[in-house]
Design brief:
Number of strands: 6
Enzyme class: oxidoreductase
CATH topology: Rossmann fold
Order of helices and strands: HEHEHEHEHEHEH
Subunit structure: Homodimer.
Distance between the termini: 52 Å
Shape: globular
Largest sheet: 6 strands, parallel
Number of domains: 1
Strand content: 5-15%
Protein name: Malate dehydrogenase
CATH superfamily: NAD(P)-binding Rossmann-like Domain
Pfam families: Ldh_1_N
InterPro entries: Lactate/malate_DH_N, Malate_DH_AS, NAD(P)-bd_dom_sf
Number of helices: 7
Strand order of the largest sheet: 3-2-1-4-5-6
Length: about 200
């Protein structure tokens, strides 16, 4: 057998299958920044996802209340809330997917530089913990500015020796939806039409 065929077969055996056709394999999702404006509805959506078996909700404050509310949703995923730095390791331990909406939102009068200076430190600390406690997890970055926080995450993972370009994603869906809505309003066109 050719080495390239053997290598391809070995890669397929190592690859994790995240499709719903993979059966009922347990999937742990950790949301870092779960008590915020994006984190709360995101936590609800993840609780409703049939592929999620365990949901770790982490934030610096108010996480137990969010976890209690989300746990009441009628789905099989187990929900646990974690708060403060000393519980971050437990929140991340064994996570298959980490979603990061953590950070401060941009406030009136705040420049993108101000936003970057605050959120860069938050992302750096969270990604350092991810590299240590769940280095093989898929990481979805929502923290703004995404075009800056994703490269920060990549550098942290490279330094830790855990970087994999196929496991780090910048999530800009909300920005796209907002842009379409603003444009449609200004152009006086239906937001759902194809422009």
């Amino acid at each position: 057998m050719r080495p390239s065929v053997m290598r391809s077969a070995a890669q397929l055996l190592r690859r994790r299958n995240y499709s719903s056709a993979s059966g009922q394999q347990a999937r742990k999702v950790a949301i870092l920044g779960a008590a915020g404006g994006i984190g709360q509805p995101l936590s609800l959506l993840m609780k409703l996802n049939p592929l999620v078996s365990s949901l770790s909700l982490y934030d610096i404050a108010a996480t137990p209340g969010v976890a209690a509310d989300v746990s009441h949703i009628n789905s099989p995923a187990l929900v646990k809330g974690f708060m403060a730095d000393d519980q971050l390791a437990e929140a991340l331990d064994g996570a298959d997917l980490v979603i990061i909406p953590a950070g401060v939102p941009r406030k009136p009068g705040m420049t993108r530089d101000d936003l970057f200076n605050i959120n860069a430190g938050i992302v750096k600390n969270l990604c350092t913990a991810i590299a240590k406690y769940c280095p093989n997890a898929l990481v979805n970055m929502i923290s703004n500015p995404v075009n800056s926080t994703v490269p920060i995450a990549a550098e942290v993972f490279k330094k830790a020796g855990t970087y994999d370009e196929k496991r780090l994603f910048g999530v800009t869906t909300l920005d796209v939806v907002r842009a379409r809505t603003f444009y449609a309003g200004k152009a006086n066109v239906d937001v759902n039409s194809k422009w």
